[in-house]
Write a structure and sequence with these properties.
about 325 residues; alpha/beta; Rossmann fold; eight-stranded mixed sheet; 7 helices; 13 strands
């Protein structure tokens, strides 16, 4: 009996190790990866209204553990050093309220959102917390979803896309480790909410959206709200935005099944990539990838569920 118990425990441990997702990066012209593990954080979203369908970003239990690989056959050249001018930080994290009124009640809801669902769950960067409280999320949701604007879950914005859960937005933004003079690329503009958050923290934001109507409406919304340091482009974000590279940070708000090589190659040395990776409807992992010369360091953050990254890749 004792032998049988030991055997079962041993088998269980083997299965647990085998089912743990990893990020595998093949050597590409000298580029290698150093995996670093962190304990995944449990996400507990607020109840989602029944009318919201589609993907959410709260993790569920692993259903189909999958190995994640960096797409091969796309070499990463070492970028030449680029002299970057020192830019002053944005004057204020609070945009003009043009075109989208704010109220005392909405301000209170934002403050509670930050206190109860973001700060309480471990996000501690005061600049990130301040900008999350200042950005008018109700300006980025559909009119029929206004009452859920500051609830901690994603909301549909049309075309099969969502505006991200506030906690996830704050977590991913904090993981970027942004500085005031940084230049950031966002893949997946959506409603423009994440770009608005980034705008209050860095000097330049470039954001790419593959769905043309979303790209157009986001550009108009961001302009109306006074976000002058955000540039929106309708394109396939898988390929990044090479003409503005290298970037200090890249954030991807939809999940591919592998890490797009162009996004890594467009990072400067020391640049950070925050990206969810995994199959649609299956277990996805949020990764923090840092480029260090010809190597990348990959750190597992937590389980998530995002809409898929679409395109012709």
């Amino acid at each position: 009996m004792k032998f049988m118990c030991v055997a079962r425990i041993t088998l269980l441990l083997v299965l647990l190790v085998a089912c743990t997702p990893t990020l595998t990066v093949p050597t590409l012209e000298g580029l290698t990866a150093t995996p670093v593990r962190s304990r995944p954080e449990e996400l507990t979203p607020s109840p989602v209204p029944s009318k919201v369908e589609g993907e959410t970003e709260a993790p569920g239990p692993p259903t189909e553990p999958a190995g994640v690989t960096l797409a091969a056959e796309s070499p990463f050249p070492t970028p030449s050093p680029v002299a970057r001018p020192t830019l002053p930080p944005p004057a204020s994290a609070t945009p003009p309220s043009t075109g989208c009124p704010d109220t005392a009640d909405l301000k209170n809801e934002r403050a509670e959102m930050v206190r109860q669902t973001i700060r309480y769950r471990g996000v501690s960067d005061e600049r990130v917390l301040a900008v999350m409280e200042s950005v008018l999320r109700h300006c980025f949701v559909r009119e029929e979803d206004l009452r859920y604007a500051y609830a901690d879950h994603p909301l549909p914005i049309g075309y099969g896309q969502t505006i991200s859960q506030p906690y996830i937005v704050a977590l991913m933004t904090e993981l970027l480790a942004l500085e005031p003079d940084d230049k950031v690329l966002e893949v997946g503009t959506g409603s423009g909410y994440q770009a608005a958050v980034l705008s209050g923290l860095v000097a330049e934001v470039y954001t790419v959206e593959i769905v043309e109507p979303l790209a157009t409406s986001a550009a108009e919304r961001l302009a109306a709200l006074g976000y002058e340091n955000v540039t929106v482009k309708h394109a396939d974000g898988y390929y990044g935005w090479e003409e503005h590279a290298p970037f200090d940070a890249v954030i991807v708000t939809a999940a591919p099944d592998h890490v797009p090589p162009p996004l890594v190659s467009q990072l400067r040395d020391g640049g950070r990539l925050i990206i969810p990776v995994g199959p649609q409807g299956g277990f996805q992992v949020l990764w923090q990838i840092t480029r260090r010369g010809n190597q990348v360091e990959a750190k597992e953050i937590t389980g998530v569920r995002f809409v898929p990254l679409t395109g012709g890749h």
